[in-house]
Amino acid sequence: MKIMENYSLKSLNTFGLKVDAKYFAVVASLDEIKQAGKFADKKAVSLMVLGGGSNVLFRGDFPGLIVRNNLKGISVIDETDDFVFVKVMGGEVWDDFVSFCVGNGWGGVENLSLIPGSVGAVPIQNIGAYGVELKDNFFELEAWFWKTSEMKIFSKNECEFEYRSSIFKKKLKGDVIITSVTFRLNKKPKFKTDYGAIKNELKNINNGKISVNNVRNAIINIRRSKLPDPADLGNAGSFFKNPVVSLVKLSELKTEYPEIVSYQQVDGNYKLAAGWLIDKCGWKGKRVGDSGVHTEQALVLVNYGNATGNEILNLAKEIQKSVFEKFGVILEKEVNVV
Ligand code: EPU
Asked: Is 111 in the pocket of ligand 1 (CB under 6 A)?
């Protein structure tokens, strides 16, 4: 395994930030993972795993070892009349895996089409879109602990999945590399098309006939119309989480803003659409230097070319400040700031 020095991460983070890693290695086997761990120990530097680099904001050069997960492979490990259990290695591209499932007619992940990133990264923040979260079809994962040099299998409960979070973003942050994820997919797909936009889009595809392939295509069309492609415009998807407030707080807000967008949660609280709050503060489409707020979706911050991580972070702080001043609501970052 080759360790590169002062390696540019520009093409490896979807914000397109021009930062370097002091050391950089690509791991494609457990043996290489072990070597990378030993190298970081020997140099006494921190180690960070990078998947697709689609949920990270670098404030500057990374002074330690960046490990790129390149473990590849997809295999069916078990099957019943209704389900298929598919094990995917952490270095696979998430959307290639979704496309593979859809190609086989297996249901479960089609609503998560086109989300950038690698398979090893998706459980960390329990990716979600259009009414489906990763945890809904998750079975188990394998993770290698850097410090103790051991592999552990995590069941769904042990992952402590939450809205855009898991144990790997909290208690075990930075402790592991996720080597594989096993999904339980449906051979008799049950579709989730409650999002109005999906139903509308499906009408344009094959006269609304529902299939995993048609739902995937509908999702792809919706995402392309709203979210910028990182290949054209640097971004990391939603920059903030949708905040959750009590019914009392929602009622207060509703008296002044009857049109506020909210969704009831199982615990009786309400999730607010952060994009709406930011939009209402007048940020949509605003540009500060080369950092900006996307013109079609105010929840997405973008890099027009030469923005630095700190410039994007300053813009984020301004947005958080104005949302708090106007609505009394705290916006929490979804993106991992390094
Ligand atoms: N809205 C506005 N103005 C905006 C943006 C949104 O008024 O500039 C309103 C919309 O009209 C809509 C509501 O806010 O009524 C919600 O917007 P949208 O459906 O686009 O979804 P979101 O809540 O902003 C979440 C996820 C996305 C995911 C979509 C679809 C989070 C933080 N984001 O966005 O995930 O694709 O729902 O399910 O939960 C990501 O995590 O990176 C991501 C893109």
From this structure: no
Q: What residue segments make up the domains of the chain, in order of their start?
A: 4-69, 74-226, 234-337
> Is the Cβ–Cβ distance between 116 and 155 less than 8 Å?
no
> Ligand 1 pocket, 299 CB below 6 A?
yes
Summarised one tens digit per residue, pLDDT across range 258-281 is 999 999 999 999 999 999 999 999
State the fold for domain 234-337.
Answer: 3.90.78
CA-based nearest residue to 242, from 268, 259, 263, 222 = 263
Confidence class for position 200, pLDDT limits 50, 70, 90: confident
234, 274, 231: which is closest to 57 by C-alpha? Answer: 234
Fold of 74-226: 3.30.465
pLDDT higher for 152 or 195?
152
Q: Report which of 146, 187, 189 is spatially closest to residue 168, judged by C-alpha positions.
A: 146
Is 296 a catalytic site residue? Answer: no
Ligand 1 centroid vs 20 CA: distance in angstroms? Answer: 31
For ligand 1, whether the C-beta of 298 sits within 6 Å is yes
Q: Which of 37-41, 136-140, 223-227, 234-238 has the lowest mean pLDDT?
A: 223-227
Is 201 catalytic? The answer is no
Ligand 1 contacts CB of residue 237 (under 6 A): yes
Report residue 276 as tokens. Answer: 């709406």
Vertex 168, ends 34 and 69: CA angle to 5°? 40
For the domain covering 4-69, report its CATH number. Answer: 3.30.43.10
325 is catalytic: no
Dist. CA 198 → ligand 1 center (Å): 14
- The string of DSSP codes covering 189-222 is ------SHHHHHHHHHSGGG---HHHHHHHHHHH
